[in-house]
TrEMBL record:
Residues 14-172 form the Pseudouridine synthase RsuA/RluA-like domain. One of its GO terms (molecular function) is RNA binding. PROSITE patterns: PSI_RLU (PS01129). This is tRNA pseudouridine synthase C. Residues 103-125 have a biased composition (Basic and acidic residues). SUPFAM superfamilies: Pseudouridine synthase. Its EC number is 5.4.99.26. Keywords: Isomerase, tRNA processing. It comes from Marinobacter salinus. PANTHER family: MITOCHONDRIAL RNA PSEUDOURIDINE SYNTHASE (PTHR21600), TRNA PSEUDOURIDINE SYNTHASE C (PTHR21600:SF56). InterPro entries: PsdUridine_synth_cat_dom_sf, PsdUridine_synth_RluA-like_CS, PsdUridine_synth_RsuA/RluA, RluA_PseudoU_synthase. It holds the Pfam family PseudoU_synth_2. Gene3D superfamilies: Pseudouridine synthase.
């Protein structure tokens, strides 16, 4: 069986990989029928020994995923996440043209994984996301009521870690992420799925930076979006793979 994970960084304490879109990190009550998880593939890369996921990456989101190789490292990095000392960057393609830069400060209600709790009142927690628009385009295709359709490539910087935060925040400012079945716009999702032959979520975790939990050394782990993601971005004139590489690596 081919391992779908690509190793990005590895030492005695950490294992960082690129997770493809569509792969669950671990078993979930929502997807009880699934039998393949990033956790089991990461364990195979770790010589069969246990690994410990230290953060969440949604199933349809691709990109940087970090595992600890021992419980102490998992605890230390988990505390750093809770303290806001881990910095994440995502790349997304959205509907419309957002502002050049901005901050979304919009509290979010918890989304429980257990469907039995969905009718129960859930707590509302603060949630903040910064964004920067990298490229815009208008294509001569009528998808809703306008003769042209506008899209943008944005970098997203979550300052809190709520479930589906980026997807819900971009919907909140009326710039939903393309391919988002739950928070996006169906007509736009279907157009790109038909044009490019896949309906993936256009959201990728491209960078994760933090102090090494043992040495204190500054660690920056980056991952380029996969070929399917880059192929959809071909609608942006001049937004080349070389430029994308420079953005991810900076």
């Amino acid at each position: 069986m081919i391992n779908p994970l690509t190793v990005l960084f590895q030492d005695e304490q950490l294992l960082a990989v690129h997770k493809p879109a569509g792969l669950l990190v671990h078993r979930s009550p929502i997807d009880k029928h699934e039998t393949e998880f990033a956790l089991q593939y990461a364990r195979a890369l770790n010589g069969g020994d246990h690994v410990y996921p230290v953060h969440r990456l949604d199933r349809p989101t691709s990109g940087v995923l970090v595992f600890a190789r021992d419980p102490e490292t998992a605890r230390t990095l988990g505390k750093a996440l809770m303290a806001g000392e881990v910095h994440k960057t995502y790349l997304a393609m959205v509907r419309g043209w957002p502002a050049a830069t901005g901050e979304i400060d919009h509290p979010l209600r918890d989304e429980p994984e257990d469907r039995r709790k969905k009718g129960m009142e859930q707590p509302v927690r603060e949630a903040r996301t910064r964004f920067q628009t990298l490229a815009t385009v208008e294509i001569p295709v009528e998808i809703e009521k306008y003769p042209g359709s506008r899209y943008a490539v944005v970098e997203l910087f979550p300052e809190t870690g709520r479930k589906h935060q980026l997807r819900r925040h971009m919907k909140h400012i009326n710039h939903p992420i393309i391919g988002d079945a739950n928070h996006g716009r169906g007509r736009h999702n279907r157009y790109f799925a038909q044009r490019f032959g896949e309906g993936r979520l256009m959201l990728a975790a491209t960078r994760m930076a933090f102090a090494h939990p043992k040495t204190g050394e500054a660690i920056s782990i980056t991952a380029e979006p996969d070929k399917g993601f880059v192929r959809v971005l071909s609608i942006f004139p001049g937004f080349s793979f070389r430029k994308l590489r420079a953005i991810v690596a900076r």
